[in-house]
């Protein structure tokens, strides 16, 4: 039997997918850490040069279960967001989205990729396994609604 990782389809997303992306982001990030973007932030960045949205979809229902948002400039690319529905955590969906990001970056001649992630986010292990290394830290970068602040770790990967 194929795993969810093998079954999920990865493909490009568009403005028409913003409702699904917001549902995934709200479900995956919630409000606890101040990581989620707003719909207007997403809508504002999508038309910019070098920005791409990728969706992970269930094969039989075509339902989006995860997404990544990427921005490439010159020979660098940044993974701006990666989120997966909690019902699909630990099933390889995030890894598939990350692999697709890295594959596209290599194919496009990108020399360095980077991202920022909240210190303590379980996804840090996935990024380390994919070859990312810490290169910086932004103190108190994320602001939770309750006033608590969390550091962002900057990770990078060279090809």
Attribute tags:
159 residues, seven-stranded mixed sheet, 5 helices
Please describe what this structure looks like.
- 28% of the residues lie in helices and 36% in strands.
- It is of the alpha+beta class.
- It has a 7-stranded mixed sheet with strand order 1-2-3-4-5-7-6.
- Helix 4 links the parallel strand 4 and strand 5.
- It is globular and about 40 Å long.
In short:
The chain has 159 residues and is an alpha+beta fold.
Order of helices and strands: HEHHEEEHEHEE
Shape: globular
Major β-sheet profile: 7 strands, mixed
Number of strand segments:
7
- The mean pLDDT is 93
Unreliable runs: none
Helix content: 25-40%
For the CA atoms, what is the radius of gyration?
A: 15 Å
Distance between the termini: 34 Å
Q: Structural class per helix/strand content?
A: alpha+beta
| Arrangement of strands in the largest sheet | 1-2-3-4-5-7-6
Total helical elements: 5
Strand content: 35-45%
């Amino acid at each position: 039997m194929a795993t969810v990782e093998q079954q999920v389809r990865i493909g490009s997303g568009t403005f028409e997918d913003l409702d699904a992306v917001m549902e995934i982001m709200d479900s995956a990030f919630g409000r606890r850490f101040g990581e989620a973007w707003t719909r207007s932030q997403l809508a504002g960045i999508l038309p910019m040069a070098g920005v791409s949205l990728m969706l992970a979809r269930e094969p039989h229902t075509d339902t989006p279960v995860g997404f990544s948002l990427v921005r490439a400039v010159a020979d660098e690319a940044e993974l701006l967001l990666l989120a997966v529905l909690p019902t699909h955590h630990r099933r390889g969906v995030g890894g598939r989205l990350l692999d697709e990001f890295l594959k596209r970056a290599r194919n496009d001649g990108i020399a360095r990729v980077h991202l920022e992630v909240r210190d303590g986010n379980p996804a840090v292990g996935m990024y380390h396994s994919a070859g990312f290394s810490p290169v910086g830290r932004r103190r108190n970068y994320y602001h939770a609604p309750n006033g608590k602040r969390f550091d962002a770790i900057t990770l990078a990967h060279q090809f």
